[in-house]
Amino acid sequence: MYPLKFKPIYKEKIWGGVALSNNFGRDLPSDSIGESWEIAAHQNGTSIITNGRFAGQTLMEAVKEEGDKVLGSSAKEEYYDKFPLLVKILDANAKLSVQVHPDDEYANKHENGELGKTEMWYIIDAKEDAKLIYGVKPEIEKEEFAAAIKEGRLEDNLMEITVKAGDVLYIPTGTVHAIEEGIVLAEIQQNSDTTYRVYDWNRLGKDGKPRDLHIESALNVINFGRSPREKVTGLEIREDGYVRRILVSCSYFTTETIDIIKNYRDKTDGSCFYIIMGLKGSAKLIYKNGKVDLKAGETVLLPAALGEYQIKGKCKLIKSYIINPEELKTELLEQGYNKEDINMIEGL
Questions:
Q1: Binding-site residues
Q2: Catalytic-role residue among 26, 197, 244, 245
Q3: Among 14, 16, 9, 58, which Cα is nearest to 37's?
Q4: Phosphomannose isomerase type I catalytic domain location, by residue (predicted)?
Q5: Where residue 228 falls among pLDDT bands split at 50, 70, 90?
Q6: Percent of the chain with pLDDT over 90
Q7: Is 227 a domain residue?
Q8: Is 26 a catalytic residue?
Q9: At residue 206, does pLDDT exceed 90?
């Protein structure tokens, strides 16, 4: 097995722009690209492998051929039918709708067996004083929220925060959120495309009509009364030549950033795959049978059977994988980290 690269799937959006060209030198098909699906195996977009013997095949065709050599021995049975993660880069040239995502149970029942959508964001770039909607004010209850929608005063009920490059946010299902203008971010999420719009800033779609809202469904899944969410701190782990920061660990994914000064060594041990996205700088990913370039804005999948590899070059990466959060917690405790340290990781 070898590191798999993919052709990005571009999604034109009313709120999209050209930041993926400006930031990463991408050749974009239009000037309103809102999403680049970096690794996807969904009915609304499926990644095509661009390198090696699987070039021209879809991700799931490679999974069908190689099985746990790609997914890993710990992969759940359902992963062989539906890849568990969807990795994107988003360009919010204008505000996205205020929205919320359902959990697995609700989505399965009401969205034809679809998954829920827990996600996390890493802010790659942001204009000065850029903002996000990140939750509902804790004193607001369902009835008041519904009334505010009808009366056109919803914005007064929302939590808004300022963000900058390098900030991280964890967005479990039921969290109301919206990316506002001037932000480019990486999104790691469950493999779902289900979104319930609550409010769309009174704008019109390309057809000159207001875009559809999903008020009833949204009200059914929003977690009201939750304390305001904070930006993710993460647990910093300093090693020789690099710094890891474990950001989020939930039942759906674990993510960490890796700041590499010179060299980073690791291995896939056969239990799970890794997804690595370049955030800054450039590097070479070297494995047993070869090497691939890795630059900012580029994403690769390291199959579970890849084995030992190293990444050489001054760069910053985000690494995503699936592990039982309790196993991670046990590992960290055994390494001498205390509960206060571990609580800096969201999702645990």
A1: 101, 119, 177
A2: 197
A3: 9
A4: 5-109
A5: confident
A6: 95
A7: no
A8: no
A9: no
